[in-house]
Amino acid sequence: MVKLKYPFLLDFYSMPGKQRIYEEMKRSSSGEREFYSGSLVRLQIEFVKHRSPKLKDVIRFCKYWKKETQLNIPSYAIELIAIKVWEDQGSPDSKSLKDLITAVFTTMMQFRHLAVAWYANYNSSLCEPIKT
């Protein structure tokens, strides 16, 4: 019999609210936090799912470019950077794909210094200050 260290991760979506997993993550070491990502995939998908088709095209292109260049940046980070650029520019369906992709690439160049948060799935009090 296998005993799970974090059995509640398997039951994440049936729990009332998402606070428990975030509180557990906050108490965990950075190495242990990596094991939570599988439980959060559904939230990641839902966060992007209802975005503009044009924004999704930008994300697909950037992910393709990442794959072709073997860039070491997480795919979900690319999604978040693209969404940030999209929102910063006022959700511009009228802008060209070239301009949007250029803006995403420009922002990606500052990836290590970028700090963005959306509070759709968690309480902002659970965020740790970013150390620069």
Describe the structure concisely.
By secondary structure, the protein is mainly alpha-helical.
Search tags:
single chain; about 130 residues; mainly alpha
Would you tell me the structural class of the helices and strands? mainly alpha
What is the overall shape? globular
Looking at how many chains there are and whether they match, the oligomeric state comes to single chain
Low-confidence stretches: 6-10
* C-alpha Rg (nearest Å): 17 Å
Alpha carbon gap, first and last residue? 44 Å
SS summary, helix count: 6
Instruction: Return the average pLDDT rounded to an integer.
Output: 77
Order of helices and strands: HHHHHH
**What is the helix content?**
40-55%
* Main sheet summary: none
Number of domains: 2
What is the number of beta strands? 0
Organism: Tegillarca granosa (Malaysian cockle)
Pfam families: OAS1_C
InterPro entries: 2-5-oligoAdlate_synth_1_dom2/C
Protein name: 2'-5'-oligoadenylate synthetase 1 domain-containing protein
Sequence-ordered SSE layout with sheet pairings:
Layout (H helix, E strand, L loop, with lengths): L18 H9 L2 H4 L3 H13 L3 H17 L5 H14 L8 H12 L24
Q: What does this protein look like?
A:
Residues 18-124 form the 2'-5'-oligoadenylate synthetase domain. InterPro entries: 2-5-oligoAdlate_synth_1_dom2/C. It holds the Pfam family OAS1_C. This is 2'-5'-oligoadenylate synthetase 1 domain-containing protein. The chain is an all-alpha fold and 132 residues long. It has two domains: 11-49, no CATH class; 51-119, no CATH class. It has helices at residues 19-27, 30-33, 37-49, 53-69, 75-88, 97-108. Residues 6-10 have low confidence and may be disordered.
